[in-house]
Amino acid sequence: MLNITASYADTLAPNSAAVKNALGLVQKNKFTSLHRSEAGDLLFGECQGSGSSGYLASADFAQPDKPVFRCTCPSRQFPCKHTLGLLYALHQGKVFTVAPVPEDLVSKREKAEKREEKRQQQEACHAAEKPKKTSKAALTKKIGAQLQGLELLEKLLLELVRAGLGTINDKTLKNLTAQAKELGNYYLPGPQNELRKLILLMQEEAGGSFAYSMEQVTMLHALIRKGRSHLESRLESGSPEPDPGSELEELLGHFWQLAELKRHGMTAEGVELVQLAFTGYDDRARQEYVDLGYWLQLDTGEIHRTLQYRPYKAARHIREEDSFTDVVQARELYLYPGGLNRRVRYEEWQPRHTEDGDWEAVTRSARRSYSDVLKTVRNQLKNPLADRMPVMLLHVAETLVTNGGEYIIRDEGGHMLPLSDIGDVGQGTVELLSCIKRDRLQDVALLARFRHLPDEGRLAVQPLTVIGQDERIRLLY
């Protein structure tokens, strides 16, 4: 029998309205028949529609990680509320009677099986063939353009620093915005986005200390210097193809294809992931909405990130991701180059309910020495090109609250870390700790985000999720 969870059904929905409408169909008993195949891998039934005849909906799990949804309704959403309703009905324990599979579904299944067989044969042939090499001349030409773009960016940065950030005015910002647009002609979307971010920061800090702007200037300077050295070494090596071992490729703007990552061995098979936190935010520099999830890999204890970018112009056509409470069983996990919290992706996967053993594995992965944690974090933050907000899982032996209402966590060795919000993230979480009973903040695991605050000269530690023996409390949403 299929193991359908509510979280899994939610992830398949094109939007929140589809979830609401599908649940409404089940609650209002709109399904006049609910059936399943003898093998249990096909759900089908009839749902009342606006007309005299109902809609025939089906959810085919012949390939569990690639379900096929079909419906006779005219909806352009995929899957529609009727097929989603079948999943919610199964999850809620509605009775599905065993019935012969309708002939039209049998025919469609057979055609789908033939297409899948043909696809697998083609993949096997492609795997046997040598990968096509990108034109060396084209790559060399692209690198030459990128080097020119970095030179242009360096001149802009030098002029900006020589004049001083305090002299910035509307005319300067307008000129920088035009120059940022021009960087798009040099195959440098990464530096282009970072320059846009600098412009936004200078606008926000006008008349202030420009602490965050200077941090961004330092980042751009390092990107120019290291990026130029990296590109020149690729040219000198005679192999100008992107280096899968370097984070600089993505920082300069290379978009890794899954086939590339697999070809370079940047994958892991049969991985199980548990999501520990999720949030979404508006990245004005990239002009995209970003869906960000933090996941723990159960067998290694590593914390990864999933990132989905939804450009402003196409956002309404891309399903927004959301929190996920089940375990993801990924057939193949794709790993991007990186240090702490590497970015990952997965395509073919199945859900399963979390068990006590999963959360025991999560809590065992929590770091127990804060001095070691701070050493790891500071080593990362020394690199101006590294992620400025690394996330780690900490064991909290005790949570203390000062008379001023400040929360402090302590490890087993007595080392303490004060908790505080990270201002430039825009979402506070510390105040939510007051809603949690004090005894539930002792001997727990805490997912925390770190950030060096350049305007205050200190390291901030922000709580994201509290993980106890019998409960998980997400503070970030």
UniProtKB/TrEMBL annotation:
Record has Zinc-finger as a keyword: yes
Protein name (record): SWIM-type domain-containing protein
Residue ranges with Basic and acidic residues bias: 109-132
GO molecular function terms noted in the UniProt entry: zinc ion binding
Region Disordered, annotated ranges: 109-133
Pfam families assigned to the protein according to its UniProt record, in alphabetical order: SWIM
InterPro entries according to UniProt: Znf_SWIM
Domain SWIM-type: 55-91
Keywords: Metal-binding, Zinc, Zinc-finger
